[in-house]
Design a protein that fits this description.
Length: about 400
């Protein structure tokens, strides 16, 4: 319905009935208030709320003025085309209807304004908040959907509403990339069963990695990878190794390079990648474990994987607590495997083979069991809701035969 004329106190009729019902919907007029004139008291009750009998009375006048004040309009208590259009737009709440860009007939309403405000809050530039779904809003919406792992169709439907609703209650003002990771983590739930993890034992084949104190890095991390794989499988995790014992990758494809290993991980659509290495140093005194996640640049424009960083810190803390190794801490690095994997990836350097003490520990099956256990515990803690997390070194896993 379009409103050509102006309605004010004393008017009656269908248009006034509609104005009243809109004001009731907006909570500005009590529901069930008499919608008909004073003469109605002597009429049949069937006429209550009657279309023809609606009266623009003092309560309507007050509600209209209240509404005009809220919307920064001229406060005159008169409903002309401008006020009517605002009344019509105001009834839409985000989620009431599908929103999409339509050339020539832009969707207008408070739901569009809410969408625009949310997009701006999250850093997606849709121009100004005007309640009109134009090309800039559509572009920002698609960008949001892409970053959020939703189908970037530019249509605001149920999945997008849910995502917007959840984000409004959690992250606002975060980096889109960081939000997507947090969302995927949240969506996947606390159970390890059903998750997919890629275990990447470094080096392999002709590449032995560090060789010192009678140990070869490629062999040590291969053995560790198998222990880890066994524990994860027992918990229902689908574990993939990037290479076989001989260094050849799955399907006999040589996964020797970091690029190939990253591509392999991406192809499995894993939840997480754990790369296992042992370190070397010219100084035989250098010792300890360190964990690395994807991170580049230290300023606010730098990119990093927040989930990777969190997982690295959990792995690092569990390893130090359970093995007694020196704490080499966590570090952000832009190494190929960390950068090219689409999922959070962590590389663990489990000690220095060039250090006599570290090498002696890495040689034992006891240390390797503790190390594998540390990674599994860290993985479990990563998916636990914050209020269910346990202190480092305390989480016990099922006993493995
Ligand atoms: Zn290595």
């Amino acid at each position: 319905m379009t409103m050509q004329r102006r309605y004010q106190r004393g008017d009656t009729g269908p248009a006034v009935a509609e104005i009243r019902s809109k004001l009731v919907l907006l909570g500005l007029l009590p529901a069930g208030a008499p919608a008909i004139g004073a003469t109605s008291t002597i009429r049949d009750t069937r006429h209550h709320g009657g279309y023809e009998d609606a009266v623009f009375d003092d309560s309507v006048d007050l509600a209209v003025r209240h509404f005009q004040q809220q919307r920064a309009m001229t406060v005159d208590g008169v409903v002309g085309p401008e006020t009517y259009r605002h009344l019509d737009e105001a009834r839409w709440r985000l989620g009431d209807r599908m929103l999409s860009y339509s050339v020539g007939h832009p969707t207008v309403g408070d739901d569009v304004a809410t969408l625009q405000q949310r997009l701006l809050d999250m850093g997606f530039d849709c121009g100004r908040v005007d309640g009109i779904l134009g090309p800039a809003t559509e572009r920002a919406l698609r960008e949001f959907q892409r970053n959020y792992g939703l189908g970037a169709d530019g249509t605001c439907g149920p999945a997008t509403f849910r995502a917007l609703d959840r984000l409004a209650r959690t992250v606002v003002g975060g980096q889109p990339h960081a939000m997507r990771e947090s969302e995927l983590l949240h969506r996947s739930g606390p159970s390890l069963a059903g998750k997919t993890v890629v275990i990447d034992p470094g080096h392999g084949g002709a590449d032995h990695g560090v060789v010192a104190h009678g140990l070869s890095e490629a062999e040590v991390v291969w053995d560790l990878a198998r222990r880890l794989e066994g524990r994860l499988s027992a918990l229902g995790v689908q574990a993939y190794l990037t290479r076989g014992v001989d260094g050849v990758g799955a399907g006999n494809v040589g996964n020797t390079g970091e690029e190939e290993r990253a591509a392999f991980a991406n192809a499995t659509d894993a939840d997480l990648v754990i790369s296992l290495h042992a370190d070397r140093n010219d100084s035989p005194r250098a010792a300890g474990v360190s964990s690395y996640y994807y991170g580049s640049g230290s300023d606010r424009y730098g990119r990093r994987s927040p989930t990777g960083e969190h997982f690295a810190s959990l792995v690092q803390r569990e390893l130090v607590a359970r093995t007694g190794m020196v704490d080499g801490r966590t570090h952000g690095k832009a190494w190929t495997l960390l950068r090219r994997t689409r999922m959070p990836a962590v590389r663990v350097e489990l000690g220095y083979l060039t250090n006599a003490d570290d090498a002696a520990r890495l040689a034992t099956s006891e240390f390797r069991d503790h190390a594998a256990e540390s990674v599994v515990v860290a993985l479990q803690r990563l998916y636990l809701p914050p209020d269910e997390d346990v202190p480092t070194g305390m989480l016990r896993l099922p006993v493995f035969s």
